[in-house]
From TrEMBL, chains A, B:
Family under the similarity heading: Belongs to the multicopper oxidase family.
Catalytic activity: 4 L-ascorbate + O2 = 4 monodehydro-L-ascorbate radical + 2 H2O
Protein name stated in the entry: L-ascorbate oxidase
Compartmental location: Secreted
Pfam assignment, any one: Cu-oxidase
The protein's enzyme class: oxidoreductase
Alphabetic keyword roster: Copper, Disulfide bond, Glycoprotein, Metal-binding, Oxidoreductase, Repeat, Secreted
Domain Plastocyanin-like residue range list: 46-156, 172-335, 440-559
Signal peptide: none
GO CC field: extracellular region; plasmodesma
EC number: 1.10.3.3
Cofactor(s) required for function per UniProt: Cu cation
Length: 586, 586
């Protein structure tokens, strides 16, 4: 045996070699994990599906509803090749809560950030998920979110980073509401004269599953609801949450409802709220929590209850007289049977109009110590009064008396190229009459359509005061959850009645939470602050799908001059398409 | 008074002056009428409507259903500025029967002649109606025709020209079928596995009006149908045909049905058929007439019956076991009340499967003497076998074993610019196996998708033999009415079973009718001849909407090199859009 071969077969060298290979692999894996591109090939199409045990047509992805969950790590690049397999409809997908830093064309808003993807076409969404948190994605064209085009997007902390709280397991809860009337018909009704309201949802869904006309908890109900009989493999079978006793679980909760504001409770279990919209909170414990459309939360529950029982997970409607039974599923303690129904009654949810309860919850939401703090001063203050209105007899929602209509040419391109006639070049008003009585129906309910934008100086600090008011009918003022694209904002405060300059003093500049969605309570106001530091065009709108459809939104833009090259794929329609076809090197 | 002023006021001169002005006007009017551009501004949108007394959502134009009737004179230019007011769907309109000589981009076929018009966009259709006749228009994207997107297009003879028959008045009958299930859901069902057939229509409509679940003629019926109670202004009130006694009326009949083949009869009145698809026929008299989807006819009726009575106009289903009651309205002799129901029973329509009756009618359709005659020889002969098939478990229709799928990029542009990868560049087969047994279900039912085209030499004469066969089930062979875009063709003959070369001898080259639509009978063949003299890309397909949706069509192209400039507006999607944005001067 030569010395070399001796060396190679010597057990000591063998171990050394193994270790060396292991180390190399480990470094390689770490490197790969550190910042990974995660590729997805998706096809959007209609499916027959029974979300609430009643067969209907839903908009799904790759043959499933809800769409697949994206799971990534902070710093990863998400690449979704989205092919439109609808028959005659365009489609886009918005990545709700992802700021799209440097990729404003990937925000997935029809008429704002891109042209819609037409049938049989493919568009590649490529964007970075820079911040860990609980997010989701959904259609942002017409009312395609309501049609079922949504799914979860979960970003874990980057490799080597740690969450500021401990948990043993994780459970995902994507909440939505569901109608039996097709979204196409809903759209026609909302834009008809006489106006036809969509009404309350038939069912609430947890992870796309609900029960129409039956209740899992019928035996506790004093109504006439019947006990559900669901086959185990039914599409509407409740998604049972399997847990081990004496562990802590992170529930990742997101609401993609079309209309409903929700309250979530887990029977006999406290919830500790630790994250909202991808930002850490000062932890606080509650028995039930509100969640408005467009919001996400992480809450921790500890499975410290009697382990021989299962427990209810219940979702019910807030802020509107509920005509929809609660959405239910079961927290299933191992090794109990997942079909074993809880023996305790449903958790008591607050009365739908108990706004004191809701405000109490909302006021507990504060940033975790050490979170970024807002600039002390604003550069610009914008007041946005939302009112219900009439335009030529059609019922609309307006902001400062302008009801948003989106143009055929996406703003991102038309602003970038300075195209005339793409949208109203007059900026919409930044304020409303001092004399407007927010407590009564509008004296003059008429408003006008508009497509103008609010243009902010790059890096300026903007305060927005969202002002609620009485709707068209006496004594009606609704909840509106507003969502901002491209940014997180600080929630500086909430108040009752009409905002006044004195209220500025009450702003919380110490530990306001960072969020991308925030509620305005009936007859109240909400103040937010953000830094216009993300070049792009960004929708800011009520996340209630029919309200947006009826014009309840505005459009912000900043730093467009800093955007170098928008991919043609996002611009091939309307005036930008025309311009590029005539003169491509503009 | 000066001699001049005397002259000017002299009555004789006054008369002369009036005459002069009249003459000038007349010339001016004649000139204007001779070749006029007729402008229309249309908005396509969804409406709540009750076509058959049951409220539904229909696709209408300018708030009406069916769309407005276009009336023009031969030689006129039609200009339709079409704005898409749908929420998320593209749209196009096909001008059925108009050959689009020199304007192939205005044929209104999605994926073939143009990119779809997206919501809020406007496309201008500008084309010449060169030939008098009865036509119609309809959506040609997805199944939007079935959704209600259709209307009449009537071209009168040019000023100074005369029709080869006399009539005193004219009545328009646009026939269609109607489902209560939304077209969106129909589309999903047809493209699902398991396959879901749309079933028979709920109602037959005459000028967009029908009656579901009641009958105008209930008192004659031995079924349990109830007498209709319709308010006079109801959207489903039958469109009564007002006539004077002892006159001759031209009924212009068009069928835009999604599925149903129809039989039309007018109680106690003979019909003299004089025109088909914009071409004059050798007149022939019948008691009832068949009309297949995509066909148009003019028939003359003489109001020579007892003038104190009204008479039934009845439309019933042919070729499929009818589950739809007849569509009815009333021929109303002046001065009888239009609400006075006829006292005679419904005209007897032939049994749905009495193909002998249908063939007898079809064989009477011959060109009026003096009509253009076909070239005596063909340059190319194409056999098209239509079969029902399976592709990966999905139910399809195929032609020579290829089921048509339309590409994202319209052929007209991708062929013109020689773009690679826009569609299958391999031409589809021109024939099928000699051994194929058309009388039995396919031995191997599997077929494949394809998007290839048949390319014809410019000005060549093409014969197409359409061969019917047994569907997937035993003893089923259906009627298929085929429609050719961009051309009229001569119908050389029909036959039973499998076409053989001997059948060529039986071709009618003497007085074959010119048409744009023709039927293939169950287990039969139909032979047509046309001259490929119209530069463009032209669909040739079964006019049954769900059959086309399931792949039952082919695409022809000819003389693309002769097309100078296709408007960019028709090309701004898919690969042509991409190409033009990168390099606009190709």
């Amino acid at each position: 045996m030569s010395p070399l071969s001796f060396f190679l077969v010597h057990p000591c060298f063998k171990a050394l070699r193994s270790l060396l290979i292991l180390c190399c692999f480990s470094v390689l894996i770490q490197f790969t994990l550190a910042s990974k591109a995660r590729h997805f090939k998706w096809e959007v199409g209609y499916l027959f599906w029974s979300p609430d045990c009643v067969e209907n047509v839903v908009m799904g992805i790759n043959g499933q509803f809800p769409g697949p969950t994206i799971r990534a790590k902070a710093g990863d690049t998400i690449v979704v090749e989205l092919t439109n397999k609808l028959h005659t409809e365009g489609v886009v997908i918005h990545w709700h809560g992802i700021r799209q830093l440097g990729t404003p064309w990937a925000d997935g808003t029809a008429s704002i950030s891109q042209c819609v993807i037409n049938p049989e076409e493919t568009f590649v969404y490529r964007f970075k998920v820079d911040k860990a948190g609980t997010y989701f994605y959904h259609g942002h064209y017409g009312m395609q979110r309501s049609a079922g085009l949504y799914g979860s997007l979960i970003v874990d902390v980057a490799e080597g980073e740690k969450e500021p709280f401990h948990y043993d397991g994780e459970i995902n809860l994507l909440l939505s509401d569901w109608w039996h009337q097709s979204v196409h018909d809903q759209e026609v009704g909302l834009s008809s004269n006489p106006f036809r309201w969509i009404g309350e949802p038939q069912s609430l869904l947890i992870n796309g599953r609900g029960q129409f006309n039956c209740s899992l908890a019928a035996h506790f109900s004093n109504s006439s609801s019947i006990q559900c009989k669901i086959r185990g493999n039914a599409q509407c079978a409740p998604p049972r949450l399997h847990v081990l006793p004496n562990k802590t679980y992170r529930l990742r909760v997101a609401s993609t409802t079309s209309l409903a504001s929700l309250n979530l409770a887990v029977g006999d279990h406290k919830m500790v709220v630790v994250e909202a919209d991808g930002n850490y909170l000062q932890p606080f414990a509650v028995n039930d929590m509100d969640i408005y459309s467009g919001e996400t939360y992480s809450v921790l529950i500890t499975t410290d209850q009697n382990p021989s029982m299962n427990y209810w997970v219940s979702v019910s409607v807030r802020g509107r007289h509920p005509q929809t039974p609660p959405g239910l599923t079961i927290l299933n303690y191992h090794p109990n049977s997942p079909s074993k129904l809880p023996t305790s009654p449903l958790p008591v949810s607050p009365r739908w109009d108990d706004y004191v309860h809701s405000k109490s919850f909302t006021n507990k939401i504060l940033a975790l110590q050490g979170s970024p703090r807002p600039p002390v001063h604003y550069n610009r203050q914008v007041f946005l009064l939302n009112t219900q209105n009439k335009i030529n007899g059609y019922t609309k929602w307006s902001i400062n008396n302008i009801s948003l209509v989106l143009p055929a040419t996406p703003y991102l391109g038309s602003i970038k190229f300075g195209l005339k006639g793409a949208f109203d070049h007059k900026s919409p008003p930044e304020n409303f009459s001092n004399h407007y009585d927010v407590m009564r129906p509008p004296i003059n309910p008429n408003s006008t359509h508009g497509s103008g934008i609010y243009k902010f100086n790059f890096n300026s600090t903007v305060d927005v005061i969202l002002q609620n008011a009485n709707a068209l009918s006496e004594n009606v003022s609704e909840i509106h959850p507003w969502h901002l694209h491209g940014h997180d904002f600080w929630v500086l405060g909430y108040g009752e009645g009409k905002f006044s300059e004195k209220d500025v003093k009450k702003f919380n500049l110490k530990n306001p939470p960072l969020r991308n969605s925030v509620v305005i309570f009936p007859y109240g106001w909400t103040a937010i602050r953000f830094v216009a530091d993300n070049p792009g065009v960004w929708a800011f709108h009520c996340h209630i799908e029919p309200h947006l459809h009826m014009g309840m939104g505005v459009v912000f833009s900043e730093g467009i001059e800093r955007i170098k090259k928008i991919p043609n794929e996002a611009l091939g329609c309307g005036l930008t398409g025309k311009m590029l076809m005539n003169n491509p090197h503009t």
